[in-house]
Every structure is written in structure tokens, then in C-alpha cells.
Amino acid sequence: MNVAKKLKIDTVLRPEVLVIGAGGAGLRCAAQICECRPGTSIIAVTKVYSPQKSHTSAAQGGMAAVDSKDPVDKIVYHMFDTWKGSDCSADQNIIKKVCESGWEQIVWLERHGMHFSRTEEGRIAKRPFGGHMLNFGRVKAFRACYEADRTGKGIMDTVWGESLKHGVVFLNQSVATELIFKNGRCIGAVVFVEQSGKFVAVLAKATIMATGGKARMYQVTSNCRQNTGDGLAMILQAGLPVMDLDAVQFHPTGIVGPGILASEALRGEGGILRNEDGERFMERYAPTAKDLAPRDLVSRCIMTEIREGRGCVHPDHKLPHVWLDLRHIPEHIHKTRIQEVSGFFRRFVGTDPQKELCPVTPTAHYQMGGAPTNEFGEVQDDARQIVPGLYACGEFAAASLHGYNRLGTNSLLELITMGKVVGDSVAAYIEDTKDPSAIPEDAGGRVFAQFAAYLEAQGKECYAEIRDALRVVMMEKVGVFRNEKGLTEAIEELKELKDRAGRMKLSSKSLVMNQELMQFWELDNLLDISMVIARCALARKESRGAHYREDYPERSPEFQHHTLACMTEYGKVELGKRPIDMSIYKAKGKHHKKFGIIERKY
Amino acid sequence: MPQEYDLTLKISRYDPDTRRSWIQDYHLKAGRILRFVDLFRKINDEQDPTLAWRSSCEHGQCGTCGMKINGKPLLTCELLVERAVGLFKTHTFNVEPLTAARVIRDLAVDLENAYERVHFVKPYIIARAATHPDGDEYRISPRTLDAYVEATRCINCFCCATACVTQRNYLGPNAVLANIVRLMDPRETAKEKRLDILYGEQGIPRCRTARACSFVCPKEIDIAHFIALAKEGAFRPEPSSTR
Ligand SMILES: Cc1cc2nc3c(=O)[nH]c(=O)nc-3n(C[C@H](O)[C@H](O)[C@H](O)COP(=O)(O)OP(=O)(O)OC[C@H]3O[C@@H](n4cnc5c(N)ncnc54)[C@H](O)[C@@H]3O)c2cc1C
Ligand code: SF4
Ligand code: SF4
Prior knowledge:
The complex is a heterodimer. By secondary structure, chain A is α/β, with parallel strands linked by helices. The longest helix of chain A is centred in the last third of the chain and has 25 residues, at about 515-540. In chain B, strands 2-1-5-3-4 form a five-stranded mixed β-sheet. Chain B has a two-stranded antiparallel ribbon with strand order 6-7. The chains are: A alpha/beta, B alpha+beta. The site of flavin-adenine dinucleotide has 45 residues of chain A, from helix 1, helix 4, strand 10, helix 5 and helix 11.
């Protein structure tokens, strides 16, 4: 009768390649492997019903890329914008690789059927996007290729279609739970199949991790329900480091409730932020740029208003917020240029933006950090040695293209460029690598113990309370604003929450499609990642990109490095450093001075 | 307009362990702009953690949270309490899983299985036309694209397939649509193969032109329009005009 004792590996599957996470990055990679090496057997695992449901499908804006034949825009401008945007903390070897191969990858997508929006001449249309400029920051560049307001869906459909075409096998509604190693080499993972409630071991020559974003530990987030940091938790549990986790990007105007982005375009067309008293508060903070100041600044101003008691609290969603006023914008602009986004307010909060104020609040949007890799997507350990057989790409990985701050449209670009790079690396690696032989005795041991603990736990702690407490403490103390006192308190609170999480009792002990069981596991992952974020943020006594310390508001040369973090036991985080690659600067090329330590000013 | 509603959700439940099905009533109070997904979360948090339901992006972009509310298939992340009350003129809602696939547990259905029909129509370019001589992208005029761009917006939520009057041996509106996209896409050359699928055994001969699909599509795609074009024989392969 005891379910916990029965946990075991039910089946062993043996493809050549295992892809954990079938989003844009994972499947671009899978498609590349199949193109390089037709007939490669690949299993791709995803938490959702079908790869098409992965969060890449929700991205709207576009994907930046410069065609080397472009008469106006130049690749070096794009590289500069990325470097500057990152607050001098991205790796220049990655910037170069990604920006130089961007256009080629756009063409790849187009040839494989993506429905890009077109110019009159029938070519791929481009639009401007924040932070992307011509001539080293002078005029805005038309650089983002897009498919209407569903660029991510276009990418997802294309790479998913190609993977189907090549016969990639999918394990849907399944979660990877533990990596399997043999003599230091990664040989696959233990996967829990929700629908059958069984564990399978997937043994492969190479394992690629591409589990995407991980921002569900924040009270308001644009991330999907599945972005619970499972992949990173697996990395930490394997004793491997994660990098720059404290770099979390907030978008200033998330729609209260669902956290959906109300794009900058609304403020671009004249939208005004107002506090509870109706005051246009941005005038006080940024007299010139006002509502159009950079994302991180606007987020901080909104949070200041809220903290100083000039925000509102939403009666239904119980969230603090300010208002976005679009009422004065002429009808024809509402009807043409901002129709889609202003429609979100109608659809998701029942507000008519032409007549009513719209509730907005900063939303956790993107995590720049992740599993550290080199420029080939090979995962590194804390001594920066490669872990054989283990690769990473997409939002999950930190190569790092974004450093401490990502430019809009650079993430989708990273998925397809680095996805391809990793595909090439893997195709070469498996060529002369043997299949893993037997499955190690102890494979799954850790996750079985973890699941057994959930199944056997007794106690009166409530999952929803712990989850909500986590999301509030992260938002308030490890969010837009950080300081020593808040972070120290947050770390203590997290320890307490982790402790309480061990006393949650399952209502049903079924293993089949047991949503509550999955949530317990996801909560543990979120708690783990949150602790690392808080620890890294406490150690980084400076402000850089998205990481803002009230007690250290300036960037400091002392922290001109990436942060590596391993967690040996809960709350005990060991920090290390990885130098930032400055190869463009060091190559002393024509514009190399632009790639030195420069100010991030707009 | 009340700020809070007293609601009753009559939810269809199914337990795969005991194979038992039943309808369970949940009473809850909810603010006017909570969405149905928020209500399910509230039920999980406050009343019953065992109720299973699926969602992902909750932005209306992924098509995971489709269900039947008072018989109408829709995306529950987009359905606000206030709107539901207005639409159905009641505070009591029957919540059922989509019928396009087998139920796994409660409101979670085996969409993975339903996807087989989409896979069957090969949602990719089977055989590419010759590429542009300069090595870059194909040239597709905005007019050409406009003719089928609506059909590319489908997110495979299977609401239409649930509403469709033909439930047997039919690919279903969304899979048919996916096939039509590539019939209209000038980059695809395998038109014959696609026409075979379109007019085949499980293709549009099964469609009874009831337009239920267009009526329920949360993306407001006029699926029946594309099916009508197919019935008129509009997708004859033309000499390649992609250059
Ligand atoms: C609303 C929104 C708008 C955005 N707009 C833009 C934009 O305009 N431009 C831009 O460049 N970027 C944008 N971004 C960012 C960008 O979309 C994401 O960074 C990117 O799509 C992530 O892709 P991915 O392939 O790494 O991960 P995802 O697409 O999230 O895929 C992750 C995959 O991993 C699976 N997975 C997760 N955990 C597990 C596990 N434990 N086991 C098995 N599988 C697992 C998931 O099911 C999924 O299949 C946006 C993001 C959001 C949220
Ligand atoms: S056509 Fe509409 S209703 Fe049907 S699956 Fe696509 S988006 Fe859903
Ligand atoms: S028009 Fe055809 S596809 Fe649409 S609902 Fe009716 S029978 Fe089904």
C-alpha cells in the first residue's frame, strides 16, 4: 500500500540525444542536430501538452538581427547596444557570435516556414525596439524582425514543425527531475511522466538543457505557470554552479493580475503613469524623459510610489499598483497603433482604456542568469571545466549574451543562434562518443527520496500560504529594490519557508496527474533558486543593470565579474567568480574603444 | 455593478485511479475581474487541492486552458467572472473538459493525443520551393500573405474541434486549417500531397458547413471561410511565383 516505497525506474529509454525542455531553444537545437546528422534519435521532454505550448509562444515583439548587406545598420552597432545594455557584463565572445550569425538564423526560420511580416517588396519587415540604435547610440534602428505580435509563436511553430519532420520523439507532460552522471559525464536524466505517474530513465550520449525562464517566485510575473526553475534546481542538486542569478529583469508595466506586458509602445504613444492621487509622478523623477525613461528606472519609480503609500491596491487581485492613463490618446491611435495591447486591458482586466485608468505594476519578466556555459553551449563546473555530455541553451543558460541586463528582442535571437550552435556542438560530440552502458545503481535515488518525503509528510502547513509568502518576500525584498537589511531578512524568511514546506501534507497520494504533488516539487525548486538569488544579490554590493542596491547605487569595478553560485545545503551558498570576456575590446579593432568599460546612459 | 459575486461552479470530475466520474459543486466569492483560471486556483488553495486543471501562459497565447463553460468551448484564462455573468446571465456555471480528447483527470484532457490530428497534416513545409537567388529570404508580398495570415494565428486550443458537429473520423477544423496554411504558402511545393489530405477520407468531405468552429474560435479566426475556399476548389497548385 505504501506508494513511497514503490518509487522506481519503470523504463529505460536510450536515444542518442536527450533534450530537456522543448521550447524555442531546445527545438532549434534538435532541428540542427537532425540537419547535421540525419537519423539521430532524439527524445525531447516538455512539461506542457505539446511543445507548441511552450512559453516561447507567448513572446510578441520581435527578434533583432542585422543583415551584413544592410546599407544602414551594421552588426557592430548591434554588438555595441548589447554590450552597453548589459552594463558591461555580457561576454563579448558571445555577443560577437550571436550578432554575427543572427541574420543567417532569421533566414533559416523563414526558409523553414515562419510567417514573418513583410515589406512592400516582399522582404522581412523590421521595426525599432528600445535600446537598439544606429551609429553607437544615436538614432533608433529598424532591427527587430517580427511576425505581427506573435513572433515567439512563429519561432515555436517552425522549430516544432522541423522537429516533427525529422522524427524527434516527444515526452510531453513530463518533467525531468534528476540528471544522471557516470564518472563525471552526464549520461541522461530521470523523467517523471505525469500522465502515467511513472519514472523513466533516459540515457543518452548527450543531454541538452533548455528549460527556459524561472521567474514564478515573484508575485507578479509575465512567466508561464511552468517556469518554476526546475532545471536550475537540477543543476544545483548535481553540485554544479549557476551564474548571475541575481540579474532579474522587471518590466515596469505588467497588467495587474495576469502580469501580461503592457508594452512601452503605450507610453510611446503618450500614455502617462499616475499614482493614487492622479499625479504624473515620473515628472518628479525624470523631468526630461518622464514616462519614457529606461525600464529599470521606471520600475524603481513605480515601486517608490507604492512603498511611500501613493499606490493603489487592486480590490480583486489584492496587488499594489499605479495607473497607466491612456484616456487622452486620440481615438484613431487607440484604434490603429495600440489596438492589440490596449485590447489586453479589455480582455484581461475588463477595463476600457479609452475611458478608464489601467492598473499596472512592475512584473518579473526575464532572468539573465542561468547555467554557465562556454561559447559552444557546454556547461561548466565551478572550476570552469566542461561537464562532458551536458549542454545548455536558451533562457535557461548564461553564456552570457545579456550580462546583468537584456535588451528587448535579444532573447529570441539568442534562442535561435545559440540553439544552432549547441546543435552543431552536440552533432560533433556524439559522432565519436559511445552510448552510455548500464544505468547507475543509484540513478533516481535523490528524486525518489524527495517524492517519498512529499508522499509521507505529515503536518498542517498550507502550500498556498507558503507559495504566496515566497512570492511576496521575493517581490518586496529581492525585487526591484534590494538592500542589505531586506536581503538578510529575506534569507531568514526563505529558510523558514523551506522548513515549513517540509510539513505540507498531500491530499491525494496518487501519482497519476497529481497536480498538488507537482506543485510541492515545483515549490521546492522555487525556494532553492530564490535562496541563490538572494545570496548573490547580497554579495553584489553595487548596482548593475537590473540589479539595484539602494545601499550601493553605483556600479563598481570591484564587481566587474560574473557570480557563480553552488548550494551545498539549504541556505549555504558558495560563491565564485567568472571573468567577463572582453575579446572584442582586446582585439583592438576599429571600434574597440566602444567595448571598454563604458557608462550605461541613454 | 457588484464588486463581488457569489458563484457556483459545477465541475466535472474524473478520477483515473478509481475510474469514477461525478459533478462537484464549489461555492465561492470572487471579484468581478478574476478569470476562471484564478477561480480554479482559488478552489485549489481554499477548498480542494485535488482538482486538476491545466494552463500555461495564461495570456491567451498557448491554448492550454480550453474548457467548456455552460457548453461553450473557450479559453478560461480569458474569461472574466463579470463577462461570464453577462454572457450566460447566471451565477452558476457548468465547467467541463473539452471533448476533443479523452479526459485524464478532472478538467485535464489528453490534448497530446488530439495533437495527432495536427501531426497528420504535417505542420511544416514538406518540400521547399527554390529559394531566392540572392541567398536570402523568399519574397512574399504582403497581399499574398494577407490571404492566409489569419489561418496562421491558430494556437491549437481545440475549442473548434470540440464545437465541431462532426466528431468522428474527421481531422477537425484546426488540423484542416494547418493544412490549408501550407496550401496557400507559396514556399510549399508538395501541394498534391496536401490536396490528398484535404479531400481525403478524414478531410473536408466530413465537414457539414455548420460554422460552429468560426463561432467559438477564441482567436476569432473564420475557419469556415477557409474551409469554404477549399470546398470551392480554390487551392489548385499554381506555377511557382515565389521568386
Ligand atoms: C510575455 C513575454 C514576451 C516576451 N517577448 C519577447 C520578445 O519580444 N523578444 C525577445 O527576444 N524575447 C521575449 N521574451 C523572452 C523570450 O520569449 C524567452 O526568453 C524565450 O522564449 C525562452 O525560450 P526557451 O526556449 O529558453 O524556453 P521556453 O520556451 O520557456 O521553453 C522551456 C521548455 O522547457 C520545458 N520545461 C521546463 N521545465 C522542465 C522540466 N523540469 N522538465 C521538462 N521540461 C521542462 C517547458 O515545458 C518548455 O517546453 C518574452 C517573454 C515573455 C514571458
Ligand atoms: S482555429 Fe481557433 S479554436 Fe480552433 S484550435 Fe485554432 S485557435 Fe483554437
Ligand atoms: S464548418 Fe465544418 S469544421 Fe466547422 S464546425 Fe462545422 S463541420 Fe466542423
